[in-house]
Amino acid sequence: MGSTSDGDGASGSQWALILGASSGTGAAIAEAVARRPGLDVFGVHRGRYAESAARMKETVREAGRRAELWQADASTPESAEAGVEALRRVAGPRSVKLFVHSIAGASVGHFLSQGEDRLHSRRIRRTFDTMAHSFVYWAQALVAADLLAPEARLLGLQNPLDETHLSNTGLISASKAALEMYVRYLAMELGPLGHRVNLLKFGTVMTPALRHVYSPEALARLETMHSRMNPAGRMCTLDEVARFVTVLAGEDAAWFNGATIDFTGGMTLKLLDLVLNP
Ligand SMILES: NC(=O)c1ccc[n+]([C@@H]2O[C@H](COP(=O)([O-])OP(=O)(O)OC[C@H]3O[C@@H](n4cnc5c(N)ncnc54)[C@H](OP(=O)(O)O)[C@@H]3O)[C@@H](O)[C@H]2O)c1
Q1: Which domain covers residue 119, as residue numbers?
Q2: Which atom, in ligand 1's list, is nearest to the CA of 46?
Q3: Residue 207 maps to which CATH number?
């Protein structure tokens, strides 16, 4: 476990710690923040997306920044401590400007199902560890190691499933609700130290997580439906989300704290219209 090499840690540069940096949203954010505001990247992943991890690393380096990948299951307090220790070895003290929680590892199913998709206790624990509790574990480890830079930004990611029901995603929504509360309470605890903790809510974007869950036909339908749902008439892109994170990492976003920032582009506004006036 752990693929970093010891660095000098004294370059004076600032870092983005990104959980889930090898794919989808996390990889796009890593590449974007390397360009602006120009952060080095410490990315955590389990190694299932070796190609896109290598691509992300290359892009970050092309932007003139360092990229270190740490391979581990990020969902436990032990891995948070080990990962932060690995980060401490390559980064300088108080150098983590941005922490983004972008891991997707959740069970779908139904709570009362008697079949294979039953959301039994192990799935519930695992989903909450991955999607919610790990945000706290890593925040605790960063503070304990005194790695947060002045006015650091901590960011969780949310989807619009807190506003609307989607058959088998109840456990995801429950864990995201916990994440939202963690964000608010950490904002209260870290605010006096100058740090900011927020939740960025955005609509569906095409990532490997989605391609894993849906068939090509279902994906095509998803795209069509989103074009009808979103006032902009198309799906949001990963690039749009990632570029907005560069804004959140900047000076002008410093007053956001404890917020759930709605970047859904009005994705759920037309649901009733679509049902009643198809
Ligand atoms: N996609 C969307 O439409 C959308 C919309 C709104 C919000 N979001 C949120 O954005 C976040 C990222 O989703 P995504 O769609 O970008 O997912 P994704 O493309 O599947 O990427 C997930 C990343 O997390 C890593 N990962 C998963 N479980 C891990 C674990 N236990 N430990 C370490 N790394 C782990 C994956 O690599 P390994 O599997 O190799 O570990 C991968 O790098 C999620 O919180 C999701 O809820 C997504």
Answers
A1: 15-276
A2: 41
A3: 3.40.50.720
**Is residue 7 one of the residues assigned to a domain?**
no
Number of domains in the chain: 1
Determine whether the shortest distance from the Cβ of 207 to ligand 1 is under 6 A: yes
Are the CB atoms for 102 and 31 separated by under 8 Å? no
Q: Amino acid identity of 68?
A: E
Distance, CA 209 to ligand 1 centroid (Å)?
A: 7
* Cα–ligand 1 centroid distance for 22 (angstroms): 9
Instruction: For residues 112-126, give the mean pLDDT.
Output: 98
Query: What distance in Å separates the CA atoms of residue 226 and residue 232, rounded to the nearest whole number?
Result: 10
Q: Is the pLDDT of residue 2 over 50?
A: no
> Under 8 Å CB-to-CB from 107, ≥6 apart: which residues?
119, 123, 124, 126, 127, 171
25 lines ligand 1 (CB under 6 A): yes
pLDDT, tens digit, 9 for 90 and up, residues 38-74: 999 999 999 999 999 999 999 999 999 999 999 999 9
Ligand 1 centroid–CA 118 distance in Å is 22
Looking at the chain, which runs of residues are DSSP E strands? Answer: 15-19, 40-45, 67-71, 96-101, 148-158, 196-202, 260-263
